[in-house]
Task: inverse folding
């Protein structure tokens, strides 16, 4: 096999969920049918890697010092939503009508991995909350053990600054069937039941 | 969202089987954790697209005029295996002990799509068979309607040049259970049964 082709196949494996077989299929597909698209991908990758950094306000990906969302006058500055990753931020932005601002932790507390408050930018978040503009900190970390621990830490931090912490509701997913919901979720949903009107 | 990021996500969708969600995940993964790997991928793509063409002998991908396999003195020139795609060639090369040469059709006969003998390089294959060195043409097109039609066409071409055509055996896959084998294959395997020694 051409060694440039081998290098291309190997390079594709850097992508998440891409093993040897898929990498081969990608390389062949691009060379057979998508050379123009492949060129665009090559250029988009190089440009993005060189020019996309992090917003100094919210730590989301941004090609400018302050990202478009943080710079927007149309967003409500009294609500701040803390998420673990840019992907979580995007999911909330796309699924909800939320018009407040975000803070991206870029991880969750995980002392064993050396990820503490400093790595999550919590000193920066603390200063932000001290500014007095934020009234509610919506904590949207994932419902994992580490995500919950992070949520508790963030809630304390919020209260220290007189900011109201809130947490996304847990429960049976809309359209979900009870028999397929995991036991922890079901147990929580049952315990958190509310009276019907 | 950063527009460079949007461009990167859009660019990833050129890859086979990659929709919006997967493209997002790839872009975030590269920017968060694999900037070095992403740079390598960008460069490998650009270089491969610029420098990988087709071998003039076998039509496989090659960065040289004649590919490594065709140029090798260690391969048997009396056997030629015709396949539809470079991926099929690679599968045979990796799975079997085949030591002959290949001819990559880069497709199969499909008159409705404007793919005829000329598009598959059959004039070139005809000249190759006329050289007199090839004794067996192993026809490894896929067992689809178009692949079978192509196989019949190739078999005729081989006979015209006094070359023996052969076709890969069909049947129950090794380790396959009868109940999960498709009906066409099972029927063929039954009809092609051979006496046990
Ligand atoms: Zn921002
Ligand atoms: Zn070749």
Result:
């Amino acid at each position: 096999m051409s060694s440039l082709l081998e290098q291309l196949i190997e390079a594709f494996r850097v992508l998440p969920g891409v093993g040897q077989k898929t990498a081969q299929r990608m390389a062949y597909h691009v060379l057979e049918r998508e050379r123009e698209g492949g060129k665009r991908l090559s250029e988009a990758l190089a440009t993005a890697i060189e020019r996309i950094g992090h917003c100094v306000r919210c730590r989301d990906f941004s090609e400018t010092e302050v990202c478009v969302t943080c710079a927007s006058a149309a967003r409500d500055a009294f609500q701040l939503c803390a998420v673990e990753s840019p992907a979580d931020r995007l999911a909330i932005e796309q699924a909800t009508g939320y018009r407040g601002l975000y803070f991206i932790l870029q991880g969750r507390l995980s002392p064993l991995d050396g990820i503490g408050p400093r790595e999550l930018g919590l000193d920066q978040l603390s200063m932000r909350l001290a500014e007095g503009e934020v009234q509610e900190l919506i904590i949207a970390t994932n419902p994992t053990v580490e995500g919950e621990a992070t949520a508790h830490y963030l809630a304390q931090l919020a209260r220290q600054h007189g900011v109201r912490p809130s947490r996304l509701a847990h429960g049976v997913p809309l359209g979900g069937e009870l028999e397929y919901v995991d036991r922890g979720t079901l147990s929580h949903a049952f315990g958190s039941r509310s009276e019907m009107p």
User: Anything to note?
Assistant: Strands of chain B lie at 53-54, 61-62, 76-83, 100-104, 136-139, 164-167. The pocket of zinc ion (ligand 2) is lined by residues B 55, 57-58, 60, 62, 66-67, 69-70 (CB under 6 Å). The longest strand of chain B covers residues 76-83. Chain B touches chain A through 51 residues (CB under 8 Å).
